[in-house]
Amino acid sequence: MKILDYSSKYEDSWIRCRTLSFLYTQYFDDVLQTKPKIDGIELICVGNNQVIGLLDIEIKNAYCSYDKHQKGAMIETIAVHPDHQSKGIGQKLLEVAEERLKLEGIDYLEAWTREDDSSNQWYIKNGFSQFNSYFHVFTSGDIKTSNPHFHPIFTFGHVTDRKQIDETVVDRIYECRGYVKKLCIQN
Length: 187
Fold this sequence. Notes:
Structural class: alpha+beta
CATH superfamily of the largest domain: Gcn5-related N-acetyltransferase (GNAT)
GO molecular function: acyltransferase activity, transferring groups other than amino-acyl groups
Radius of gyration: 18 Å
Helix content: 10-25%
Low-confidence stretches: none
Oligomer: single chain
Number of strands: 8
Protein name: N-acetyltransferase
Mean pLDDT: 92
CATH architecture of the largest domain: 3-Layer(aba) Sandwich
InterPro entries: Acyl_CoA_acyltransferase, GNAT_dom, N-term/lysine_N-AcTrnsfr
Shape: globular
CATH topology of the largest domain: Aminopeptidase
Number of helices: 3
Domain N-acetyltransferase: 1-166
CATH class of the largest domain: Alpha Beta
Keywords: Acyltransferase, Transferase
């Protein structure tokens, strides 16, 4: 098992690892066919020439919300293949990334995840603290819009206050939790 910088020769294996990792979580429908471009850190853990763990952190174009006065980075994707979970792979990927972030002068690392207990516990165990949350809302059926020519059959939206949601017309609601880990800057 080796931690490497991502290379495009691993793209198919990266996609399979991410998809299988998300399959039994609340992100089960977040399926990709190509790896998104990241301007930051792209790490993979490889075993038997297959990606068994991955971590993508956006630095340059990070849309962090924790503290606009400090330099933040955003975990875009972290995933470990189900056959290799609970072996410390995610933690090792994070440790390698944190060393690089410190060298880049990053003040904090931000991440967002839904309600899956194992994901939330992983962030807490690895030194993150929850600082915010909002709701992911999925609806389907007869959805009204102001455009009479537009007839959506499925919508996904964000809501900050659960009381604003008419749960009788909602298929799924997930609390999306924001986590932050402050990093010590090396001089």
